[in-house]
Amino acid sequence: MTMERATILSGFGGQGLLFAGQVLAQAGMLEGKHVSWLPSYGPEMRGGTASCTVIVADRPIGSPVVDRADIVIALNPPSLAKFEGLLAPGGLLVLNDSLIEAVPGRTDLEILRVPCSALAREVGDERVISVIALGAAIARRPIVGEAAVREALGAKGRPEVVDANLRALALGLERGAPVVA
Known about the structure:
Layout: E1 4-12, H1 17-30, E2 34-41, E3 49-57, E4 69-74, H2 77-83, E5 87-96, E6 110-114, H3 116-123, H4 129-140, H5 146-154, H6 159-176
C-alpha cells in the first residue's frame, strides 16, 4: 500500500511556518521519502498570512498542489477559516488554542488544541510556535519519525536556536501524544 500525506501549515508571517515546513520536508528526505514543499506568503512576510504545503510520500509526487490535506496546522483564526475545508474527512486539525477561540464547523475531523503561543513563551522564543505545532501533529500522525525531525532541526541554526527548537519539539510531542486510557 502506498503512502502520500499532505500537510498544510498556516498562520501569521513570523511564526516560523515556512521553517517548520522545511523541517518536515527535510525529515522526510532523511527517511528516504519523496517530498514536496510549496510556500505561499503575502508581500508583508512578517505579520501577513503565510502557509506552506508539504507532501511526504513513498513514491514520486505528481503535483505539489493539494485539494485535500491529511493534516492542517492553523495558528491563527484566518488560517482556520481558509484551510478547514481542505481537510479530508478524518483529517487532523491542529489549532493554536492560544489564538483561536472558534469552534471548527466540521464534526468529521480529529481536532487537537494546543496552546502553541503560550508554550513558545515558556521556551522563550515566539518563533518556535510552529515547531510546537509540528511536534503535536507528528505525535498524533507520525508521517515522519521523531528522530528524523530532531536531526532536521539539529542541522538548522546556531546552537541556542537548535536548543530552543528541540525543546519546542519536545513540548509539542508531549501535547500531541495520544491519551492512553
